[in-house]
Amino acid sequence: MTKILLADDDFTMVTLLKTLLGMEGYETASLLDKAGDVLDNIRREKPDIILLDVHLGDRNGVELVRQMRETDDLRNVRVIMVSGIDKSDECFIAGANDFLLKPYMPEELFSKLRAV
After folding, report:
1. Domain that holds residue 83
2. Dihedrals φ, ψ of 51, to 5°?
3. Is-contact 25 72, C-beta < 8 A?
4. pLDDT digits (tens, 9 = 90+) for 30-87
5. Which residues of 75-86 are buried (b: 16+ CB within 10 A; e: fewer)?
6. Cross-strand pairs, 57
7. Taking the model in full, what pTM does it have?
8. How many distinct structural domains can be found in the chain?
């Protein structure tokens, strides 16, 4: 089963995505309620794919992807970045595997998940 880590600070979005992805057979986890270092939490969760918001509370998702790509044990984790503003170029340069512009349809999300 593919495990997807939801890295978004919007409780409603995380709840909806957990339900939607669960119905499609994905295992999900969220960083929403996790304290401490984001990279350490990613290591603990061991996701196959991270759905990462560009604006993650007080953290910058683009910088987080950059850090992951420079870290041996997180370098190959697949990352789909999401934002309400088209920051796709910036995300790809930082090392994201794909980008979704909010709002997106479930079919678009599932297509991206299958692709990465």
Report:
1. 3-115
2. -100, 105
3. no
4. 987 665 688 999 999 999 999 999 998 778 999 999 999 999 999 999 999 999 999 9
5. eebbbbbbbeee
6. none
7. 0.93
8. 1
Q: Which amino acid is at 73?
A: D
Give me the phi and psi of 99, to 5 degrees please.
-145, 140
Phi, psi of 77 (to 5 degrees): -70, 130
Q: Compute the distance between CA of residue 39 and CA of residue 43 in angstroms, rounded to an integer.
A: 6
Tokens, residue 50: 């991270």
CATH no. for residue 105?
3.40.50.2300
Strands 78-83 and 55-56: unpaired
Which of 49, 54, 51 is CA-nearest to residue 86?
54
Preceding amide of 103 cis, omega within 30: yes
Token output for 33: 């309620």
CA nearest neighbour of 14 among 24, 29, 3: 29
Token pair in block for residue 113: 């998940």
User: Which residues contact residue 41 at a Cβ distance below 8 angstroms, ignoring those fewer than 6 apart?
Assistant: 31, 34
